[in-house]
Design a protein that fits this description.
The structure is a homodimer. By secondary structure, chain A is α/β, with parallel strands linked by helices. The first copy, chain A, is built from 19 helices and 16 strands. Chains A, B: GO terms for molecular function: glucuronosyltransferase activity.
Chain lengths: ~525, ~525
């Protein structure tokens, strides 16, 4: 494994046509492949449009990331992307741990390659922009001593906030729990148990980075601490999507930063949409990774769609289902944003990826959710709690339950009303999420970081952070005072009692003497 | 006391000349008198400029708040402002409790006045804007069922964040502690002790509102919970001023919202400033409440100033000190913002009120601090930790220690360099703090609140919020499992041992039989 990891580095420097802008910054981007790159690309394109020079580190077998681009340089490293092998696999979670093993090996090889490291140092980058779903970019930024900006929703330590913001488990549902911010006692117990389980799982993933952390950043360094040292967290959600929870000053919410007003549809698609008449259209897409569902399920979905008066546009890459109705159009790809923004769109059948949900919120289209893996069940449980989504369990669904769910979302007006309310809230921001993200990236360039927004409390040992040592000392002190006081009081009581007894004795003796003399 | 509290209400409605704007909202303002009104006025003026109609509730004996204004209506209520009596007093903290007693009485009288309450209901306000340093505005908003926007730095529960955001005492210094975010063990013990002390003090202040809360908002209502229900917290600081700490999504930072570029000085003042030559000027002001210091202290300060080559402009309202030098100009009032923004200004001698510090940060002028009461020691300890202020203890100072402090700030370039760095950070924001405040006030108007940004976790009982019940149950369960397992294991051990013994016995018996037969 290690053998094929040697690095063939060649720096591609196409002629970059930078528009005149406020830019001129040097940004080093360490992306994560797959759907994560879709997000990162939005930032990279906008940074380019603002006149910054961008260098992207691209694994040679990358699935999504282009080696040749007119708007970024690339540094190619070989054999590092694991996504090619795991795409379409339902065993993603298990495979993730292997991915981290690969990334940590890749980084180790990079750090050993002194020519590469010297050329990176010489390039005088202003910052590293990375997605901390793997540890690579974080380690690279620390190794190069550069400010660090995260484009984040997940870290190895779970949902981004859990790595830096206090997250009381009484009202902050742990990732994967599918709970809301309003939990019963049993649910709160569940949340605490899932927290411990999750922590253990995540520790396993982080473990792959331990040796490289200790080798380069000191014996007590670990990936969590290095991640917590990031300057700015560009968080890919907001509080229209997420439940309200504590946050930190260096978290910048840019949820929906990729959303745009719809462009006109291609003529044939527009004709199909218009043919739906008053009934409107339903669109269905299960995102970039999951193009194909098991055949039995596709048949059930197709059969359900066939019973609807609506037209359906279904992004489907597998075999054509036999039960497909005339009202359903299968497409390999669709202009999802333009379709969601079309006035005839009535509902969105989705797997619940963050991007799709943000676009649905932006355009105010209610959701029928078919959650598969990762954050999808959590995302959809949030939408369900806000009354804008109906969730269908893919494991137990059939044409009837699916049809019922779609019809409920179509005919119960509360779904659409609530989603349009969320849309209004989301759009009503002092500045566009993408502009806000750009501002803070450029802020880090201008000021060489954003240390004033970042607490250093993560450097404290856990018992100090949680004041356990203080509580123990105060408790010991109070106990000591109570013990001493009790002892003193007891001793005094004893003394007093003895004196009383003695006096009694004396009195009795005197009395007896008096009596003696008297009688 | 209660007798003089009857309310003479007359609503003044001057002809409001609203500029054409995006506005048209109806804002009910319940201010706090004194320096708090200076802040609130900035918001009220800007709201007026944006075309909103503002109604201000003004106590008849108000010290700062004008009854007649061209940009707001006023509802006058008699005998409620206590500030007139306590201004200039060093016993402010003690008197504060009395102030809360008065405010709660005033609010009670207001609620009883059905004509006033009906007229307030009829006015269909969009929101209540208030400073929660007293509880009046919060109670009024809940009584009228209106969305609530706080212009806040302090609540009765201490520094604003402590009422809503998790505040780990290991790195969040409790108000009044004068600690930083980097504490030794002893300091952390101190912080925890001050926390408990502070909580007790604040409970006393809140106590005055208990009966009115229970009467109007249910038997378990209290002021803290009602305050926590606010939609937006416009916080009068930011993280250039404050140490980084956890915050909440509905906290909007508007620190320095009153700061403006300097206007030219009046001719005579400009001449005086220019006469300082290369040495520049020092300006001194102890804010709006404290115009006069004890005579001995003024003499020492004057004598110290007299030894400097700089010119000094001193806002001073008492007797002219005998030791005053020719280089010092006493003024009753000064254009503080314009002077701080003047290129010849070298240092700012200040008491450490939030407004003055924000202006010093905005203009990049280092501080010599003479903290007196309230948040002033805390504010200055923050500036000291950031290396932009030298603090002088007013209780022990003399001309020498004061002179030394001023000279250190003048001649050690790090003070100015660091303060100008803070100034650059403060000015580098995606939008101006005042515009941000306006956006969120208008957001609340547009959406009838901002419930999606506000956690409702404050409604949980404390043991549920802190998951104490969950921990107890889990601990009990684990204990039970351990006990049962131990009991079972013990019982089995006992059984096994007995069986072994029995076998031994049998064996021995058999052996003995065998031996018997054998011999």
């Amino acid at each position: 494994m290690m053998k094929c990891m040697h690095l063939l580095v060649f720096v591609l420097t196409p002629l970059l046509l930078c528009p005149p802008g406020i830019g001129g910054g040097q940004v080093l981007v360490f992306p994560v492949d797959g759907s994560h790159w879709i997000n990162m690309k939005v930032l990279v394109e906008e940074l380019h449009a603002r006149g910054h020079n961008i260098t992207v580190i691209v694994p040679s077998d990358s699935w999504y990331i282009n080696k040749n681009s007119s708007y970024y340089n690339s540094i190619q490293i070989e054999g590092a992307s694991f996504w090619t092998q795991i795409k379409m696999s339902f065993e993603l979670i298990v495979k993730c741990s292997e991915m981290h093993y690969h990334v940590s090996n890749m980084i180790h090889e990079m750090f050993q390659d002194s020519r590469l490291m010297q050329s990176l140092q010489a390039s005088e980058y202003d910052l590293v922009l990375t997605d901390p779903a793997t540890g690579g970019g974080v380690l690279l930024a620390h190794r190069l001593g550069l400010p660090l900006v995260l484009n984040v929703r997940w870290t190895l330590q779970g949902e981004g906030h859990f790595a830096i913001a206090p997250s009381p488990l009484s009202y902050v549902p742990f990732p994967g729990s599918e709970l809301t911010d309003n939990m019963s006692f049993i649910e709160r117990v569940q949340n605490v148990l899932i927290y411990f389980l999750g922590k253990a799982q995540l520790a396993i993933a982080s473990y792959h980075y331990t040796s490289i952390c200790q080798q380069y950043f000191g014996s007590d360094a670990d990936l969590l601490t290095l991640t917590q040292g990031a300057d700015i967290w560009l968080m890919r959600n907001d509080f229209v999507f997420e439940f309200p929870r504590p946050t930190m000053p260096n978290v910048v919410y840019m949820g929906g930063f990729q959303c745009k007003p719809p462009k006109p549809l291609p003529t044939d698609l527009e004709e199909f949409v218009q043919s739906s008449g008053e009934h409107g259209v339903i669109i269905m897409s299960l995102g970039t990774i999951f193009g194909e569902l098991p055949h039995e399920i596709t048949e059930e979905i197709a059969a359900a769609f066939a019973q609807l008066p609506q037209k359906v546009i279904w992004r489907h890459r597998g075999k054509r289902p036999a039960s497909l109705g005339n009202n359903t159009l299968l497409v390999k790809w669709m202009p999802q944003n333009d379709l969601l923004g079309h006035p005839k769109t009535r509902a969105f059948v989705a797997h619940g990826g963050t991007n799709g949900i943000q676009e649905a919120i932006y355009h105010g289209v209610p959701i029928v959710g078919l959650p598969l893996v990762f954050d999808q069940p959590d995302n959809l449980s949030r939408m369900k709690a806000k009354g804008v989504a109906k969730i269908v369990d893919i494991a137990t669904m059939d044409r009837n339950t699916f049809l019922q769910a779609v019809q409920e979302v179509l005919h119960d007006p509360s779904y659409r009303i609530k989603m349009q309310h969320l849309s209004r809230l989301h759009r009503d921001q002092p500045m566009k999420p993408l502009d806000r993200a750009m501002f803070w990236i450029e802020f880090v360039m201008r000021h060489k970081g954003a240390a004033h927004l970042r607490t250093e409390s993560y450097k404290m040992p856990w018992y100090a952070y949680h004041s356990v040592d203080v509580i123990v000392v105060l408790f010991a002190f109070v106990s000591l005072v109570v013990l001493c006081t009790t002892a003193i009081v007891k001793y005094m009581c004893y003394k007093i009692r003895r004196r009383i007894k003695k006096k009694h004795k004396e009195n009795r003796w005197r009395k007896s003497q008096i009596y003696k003399n008297y009688y």
